[in-house]
Structures are given as structure tokens and as C-alpha cells.
UniProtKB/TrEMBL annotation:
Keyword tags: Magnesium, Metal-binding, Methyltransferase, S-adenosyl-L-methionine, Transferase, tRNA processing
GO molecular function: magnesium ion binding; O-methyltransferase activity; S-adenosylmethionine-dependent methyltransferase activity; tRNA (uridine) methyltransferase activity
Keyword Metal-binding carried by entry: yes
Entry protein name: tRNA 5-hydroxyuridine methyltransferase
Species assigned in the record: Kurthia zopfii
A Gene Ontology biological process term: tRNA methylation
N-terminal signal peptide: none
Coiled coil residues, start to end: none
Length: 210
């Protein structure tokens, strides 16, 4: 049974003016940011984990980075984005936030930038970028996660496409969905991680490194 938005809404706290502005900007400009129900779940998990450092793959306009930095006291967020217009938007929003000292924005392709030479380890990694590249992101950045650390991976539903028979998936999306399915199957069977799927928002995968 699906839980209605009306039921969930009282559990979503009021955001500050900057975050509300970012949410409206994302809606108006079709920028994919986490659904409110999903990010509240993510933030609560992070509050329980209490990571000192988080790597985010896919900054977009900086919304999730700001939310995570506000939720976790004294956390260091390193976030990567390759899209130049979104980089400029993220810079502006981060600069206006009350957590700008906690966020480092790295510009470039997450599969090409050198993060590990300056930041050799993280307590958590949050992946929210090109869905067809999740396996590559995981392979590149999971070695930086400390034992006991957690990888949080968003958009596993892919707006419901992951739950469809492949013949019903639009042709241009099929390779991406196949890659997403293969990645999900692989990580669930990977004994180095204890992985659980949370059906919130667009689907959140949680992988604890043993």
C-alpha cells in the first residue's frame, strides 16, 4: 500500500528561505533534486551515522550538499559537478548559505577528477548523478569509504522505469535501465557490503561497508 503525500507532509519540517528558493528554482528549471520525503530520510540516516566527511557525486545546484551540511554539525562535504551552468548556480547558492565553510565544490567529470590525492577517505558517499554510470561511480569511490562507512545511492527507481518490463521502457532509456538493474544485482550480492533498498522518493539504496 502506498503512503499518500498528505500523510507524509506533516513529517517534513519547514525549510529556510534559501532552501525554499532552491526548491522553486529546481521546479521552474527542471533541475532534478531529491524529493522531500527521500532527503528527509537520508538526513535522518546521516544524523544517526554522524559522518565527519561526505563525498557527493552530482552536486546539481548544491541543494543536497547544503541540506547535509545543515543537518550534520561540523561535517565536511566534498561535492562534484560537471555541468557548468549548474556549477555556477551551486556556487551562488552555497555562498549564500550558512554552511559555505563546510562545502567544497569540485568542478569536472566525477569519473575523471582526482579527489583521492587530497581527500583519501570519507565516512559516507552520496551518489546522485548519471544513473547509467552508477557501477563506475561505485568502483571509483567505494575504496575511499572507511570500514563501517556508508554509500547512499539515489534514484534506483528511475521514476518508475526500473520497475517496468524492459519492452515497456522507452528505447532511449533501455541501456541506462539495464545498467541500473545490473548494478543493483551486483551490489546486493557483494559480500563486502550490507545493502538495503528503501522505497522512499525515487528509491534509495544504502550500502554499509563491512
Amino acid at each position: 500500500m502506498e503512503i499518500s503525500d498528505a500523510y507524509i507532509q506533516p513529517f517534513i519540517p519547514t525549510r529556510d528561505e534559501l532552501l525554499m528558493e532552491m526548491e522553486q528554482y529546481a521546479t521552474d528549471n527542471h533541475v532534478p533534486i531529491m524529493q522531500l520525503s527521500a532527503i528527509e530520510n537520508l538526513l535522518q540516516m546521516l544524523r544517526i551515522q554522524k559522518p565527519a566527511s561526505i563525498l557527493e557525486v552530482g552536486s546539481a545546484i548544491g541543494y543536497s550538499a547544503i541540506r547535509m551540511a545543515q543537518a550534520i554539525e561540523n561535517v565536511q562535504i566534498v561535492t562534484i559537478e560537471r555541468d557548468q551552468p549548474r556549477i555556477e548556480q551551486a556556487k551562488g547558492f552555497i555562498e549564500r548559505s550558512n554552511v559555505k565553510e563546510n562545502i567544497v565544490l569540485i568542478e569536472g567529470d566525477a569519473l575523471e577528477v582526482d579527489v583521492e590525492s587530497k581527500y583519501p577517505s570519507f565516512d559516507a558517499v552520496f551518489i546522485d548523478a548519471a544513473k547509467g554510470q552508477y557501477q563506475k561511480f561505485f568502483d571509483k569511490y567505494s575504496p575511499l569509504v572507511k570500514s563501517g562507512g556508508i554509500l547512499y545511492i539515489d534514484n534506483m527507481y528511475m521514476h518508475g522505469l526500473s520497475d517496468l518490463d524492459m519492452k515497456d521502457v522507452p528505447r532511449r532509456k533501455r541501456t541506462m535501465i539495464r545498467n541500473l538493474h545490473k548494478f543493483a544485482e551486483w551490489v546486493i550480492q557483494n559480500e563486502q557490503y550490507q545493502s538495503t533498498f528503501f522505497p522512499v522518493g525515487d528509491g534509495l539504496l544504502i550500502c554499509i561497508k563491512r
